[in-house]
Amino acid sequence: MAISELKLPPGVQACAHNDAEQLAQALAVRVADALRQAITSRGQATLVVSGGRSPVPFFEALAQQALPWAQVLVSLADERWVPVNHAGSNEALVRRHLLHGPAAEARFLSLYQVAGNLEQAAELADAAVAELAPIDVLVLGMGDDGHTASLFPHSPNLHQALQPDCARRVLPMLAPSEPAQRLTLTLPVLASARLPLLAIQGQAKLNVLTAALMPGEIAQLPIRAFLNSPLEIHWCP
Ligand SMILES: O=C(O)[C@H](O)[C@@H](O)[C@H](O)[C@H](O)COP(=O)(O)O
C-alpha cells in the first residue's frame, strides 16, 4: 500500500518525502518552526526525540537551524539502561549529533540514571522528568514490530504505560533486542505533546503502519496508541 492510499483517522496526517535526506531536512524545519513558536508564546520550548539509528540525519539537520537553543529543553522518549559511554546510549546519540555547535546551549534532561536495578532507575528517571510535560514537540520513531518509544509489544508494564491516566511518567520496559533493559516515557507524558510527529522510513515500516491502522490489539502493535489522536507522520522509501 502507498502512503497516499492509507485511510487515516481524523487528525492523523501523512507526508511523503523522496528520500531520507529530504525527510530529515523537512522534519528539521517543521520542528524548528514549532520550537520557535513555543518560545515566542511561552519563553521556552520542550523537545522530546527518539533514539535508534534513523534519526541521525534529522538531528544533524536540526542542529543547523537558527534557534535560541538556550531556551530549549531536550529529552528522550526512551532510553536504553546503559551509561552514556555505551554504544547503545540514546543520550550519547543526541549529544553527538544534535547538541553540538549553537545547539549545545540547549538543556538536556537524561532518562538514564545510575541505580541498583532497572526499576529503581525508572523511579529516579520519573522524578527527573517531572518538568517535561506538556511537551512542545515530540518526534517518535517506530520499529518493525510496531513498538514506539520503548513500548514493546507484550512487554511487562506495557498495559500500565499505555493507560491514559498512568500515574508514572517513566516505566521500565524489556526490549526483545540488546540492550534489553529500557526506560520509556508513558502515554500521558507522550500524549501531552502539542506537536506529535512520527518519522519512519522504508516499505516494511509503512506495512506495519498499514496493519496498525486496522482494528486490533494495542499490545500487539503499540504504535496504535498514537493513531487515535492528532499525529503528523513523515515517511520516505
Ligand atoms: O531507542 C530506541 O530504539 C527508540 O527510541 C525506538 O523507539 C526507535 O525509535 C525505533 O526502534 C525505530 O528506530 P529506527 O528509526 O532507528 O529504526
Automatic annotation (TrEMBL):
Pathway it works in: Carbohydrate degradation; pentose phosphate pathway; D-ribulose 5-phosphate from D-glucose 6-phosphate (oxidative stage): step 2/3
Transmembrane segments: none
All copies of domain Glucosamine/galactosamine-6-phosphate isomerase, residue ranges: 19-235
EC number: 3.1.1.31
Coiled coil location: none
A single GO BP: carbohydrate metabolic process
Gene3D superfamilies linked to this entry: 3.40.50.1360
Family matches, as Pfam families: Glucosamine_iso (PF01182)
Keyword Hydrolase belongs to the record: yes
Keywords: Hydrolase
InterPro entries: 6-phosphogluconolactonase_DevB, 6PGL, Glc/Gal-6P_isomerase, NagB/RpiA_transferase-like
One GO molecular-function entry: 6-phosphogluconolactonase activity
Reaction catalyzed: 6-phospho-D-glucono-1,5-lactone + H2O = 6-phospho-D-gluconate + H(+)
Broad enzyme group: hydrolase
Signal sequence residues: none
Domain of life: Bacteria
PANTHER family: 6-PHOSPHOGLUCONOLACTONASE
NCBIfam families per record: pgl
UniProt record similarity statement: Belongs to the glucosamine/galactosamine-6-phosphate isomerase family. 6-phosphogluconolactonase subfamily.
Chain's role: Hydrolysis of 6-phosphogluconolactone to 6-phosphogluconate.
Stated name of the protein: 6-phosphogluconolactonase
Organism: Ectopseudomonas toyotomiensis
Gene name tied to this protein: pgl
